[in-house]
Amino acid sequence: MTDSQLLLQVRDLTVVIGGRHILHGVSLDVAAAGVTALLGRNGAGKTTTVRGILGLLPRQGSVLFDGVETVGLPTHTLVRRGIGYVPEDRGIFAGLTVAENLRLAERGQDPAYGLVHELFPELRQRARQQAGTLSGGQQQMLAIGRTLLNGNRLIIADEPTKGLAPRIVSEVAVALERAAEAVPVLLVEQNLALVRRLAGDCVVLADGRTAHTGPAAALLADAEAARTLLGVGRRPTTRPTTRERTA
Ligand SMILES: Nc1ncnc2c1ncn2[C@@H]1O[C@H](COP(=O)(O)OP(=O)(O)OP(=O)(O)O)[C@@H](O)[C@H]1O
To answer: Residue 233: what pLDDT?
Structure first.
């Protein structure tokens, strides 16, 4: 991929919290279109990477967004430059209506309600509903829709399907698919079926480092690599069969 096809280039991102190195030099690229998945076992450093990219944690290294260095810039500047964030807890206001949640997210003169309602008609239909009474999938639509209001150029979504029932996961998959048609997405995700469906490239972290980068489909088709890097699938049995044991 050429540099011009890359929207985000992270190099040697290091995060130290309370004297402990959490990230030891993460490097990753996010393509200027589609979904790039950020994968890894629990505790590998995915959320810390996202928070480091956004400047929510003190970090060192380089984060180029559209070719411009952003390490050293405050989070609000990054947000103004066009990075939308869907945090793990969704960050919506449960006591406010859908319309109020969207209004609070407005920035600038011309919020893109047309795009948001085109992608997520339910948000228009449920404009007056309290956000806390939406289903988990609808809440994710609201959280994602909110990031599309402001002409963002990249959406970072942190485990949007975590804790959701399978039926709701499919709703969120559709929401992400629709969003990614409009804006590139960096998706932190543990649900590999969803990754297979949505992601072009993937980056795998292990122990605060980049352990693998490449096409998501190739990694997920390689059972041994998926097991080693992601801890999924069963180890091939090495125990002798009954016949071998009794021979
Ligand atoms: N504020 C903090 N203080 C100390 N240690 C932290 C802090 N935040 C994260 N860690 C540690 O850093 C490591 C990486 O955490 P992180 O949440 O980034 O992993 P993750 O890959 O997102 O995991 P999960 O899939 O479980 O959400 C873990 O060992 C975690 O305990």
So the answer is: 65
